[in-house]
Amino acid sequence: MAIEIRELTIDDYEALVALWDETGLPYRPKGRDRREAVARELAQNSSVFLAAEEDGMLVGAVLGTQDGRKGWINRLAVRPSHRRRGIGRALVNALETRLQSMGIEIVGCLIEDWNESSMAFFARLGYVHHPDIAYYSKRRSPET
Ligand SMILES: CC(C)(COP(=O)(O)OP(=O)(O)OC[C@H]1O[C@@H](n2cnc3c(N)ncnc32)[C@H](O)[C@@H]1OP(=O)(O)O)[C@@H](O)C(=O)NCCC(=O)NCCS
Q1: 85 lines ligand 1 (CB under 6 A)
Q2: pLDDT of 41-82, one tens digit each?
Q3: Which domain holds residue 76?
Q4: Which residue of 21, 51, 63, 107 is 20 to 30 Å from 45, comparing CA positions?
């Protein structure tokens, strides 16, 4: 069955959360990943949220964003049963193409240090690791 990469819509929200649960990807159900927050982001033209679908089923997704300067890969996930078939690569390639058409020439992602498979994946796709960069953030609440 062929994989289709398409725009994600808010109607995919329940399937998206089920996908995150199945992949064990940490997400913020009461914070920035709650339905209203995802809907708000989808309405902004700075978001490129993509779905990978097979036979009408969501098998992968990525929440791409851009801040006018850089593009960001967030919440990339592929169903465990569908991995190593090029779906993650297809999602990232499609995201890169869309970001490029918006004038964005650098794309980054933040990967937690335990996530070695994700690091291997991004290295395979030509992304460069920056061990010299420390990530700092300021949150209004732990749920954010
Ligand atoms: C990371 C993830 C999205 C990869 O998806 P995928 O569809 O299996 O990846 P692909 O099949 O497109 O693989 C692309 C390349 O990466 C390599 N790759 C994928 N997973 C890998 C792994 N665990 N270890 C080493 N290489 C890996 C593949 O071999 C392939 O290389 P090739 O095309 O040269 O053979 C998937 O494993 C996943 O959902 N992980 C859990 C969620 C997660 O950690 N997301 C990232 C958060 S930053």
Answers
A1: yes
A2: 999 999 999 999 999 999 999 999 999 999 999 999 999 999
A3: 3-124
A4: 21
